[in-house]
């Protein structure tokens, strides 16, 4: 069964991420701020929405956003996708989303290496 979300829903998820990212981790405040600074600020809001769209809506991603994703780093990508996938209305399909996330990462690394 395919789950689709409107762009508005995705925007709200991103906003919720921004508001809740730091408290979501049981790390010290300085470490949380470092994660925030290094992960969420390395990628444009449009690319963040595109990445979420690929994982949660079966959309596509541009090569430029792939480059941004690889620049962001695997740890940041995995952490943010896992955080979203653990939301109550998504957790039933968390494994599927994490697999899509890994496929996206592999695709984007491949794209970045050919450029």
Automatic annotation (TrEMBL):
Record flagged with keyword Signal: yes
Location of the Prolamin-like domain: 38-109
Classification of source organism: Eukaryota, Viridiplantae, Streptophyta, Embryophyta, Tracheophyta
InterPro entries for this protein: Prolamin-like
Signal peptide segment: 1-24
Keywords: Signal
Protein name per the record: Prolamin-like domain-containing protein
The keyword Transcription regulation appears for this protein: no
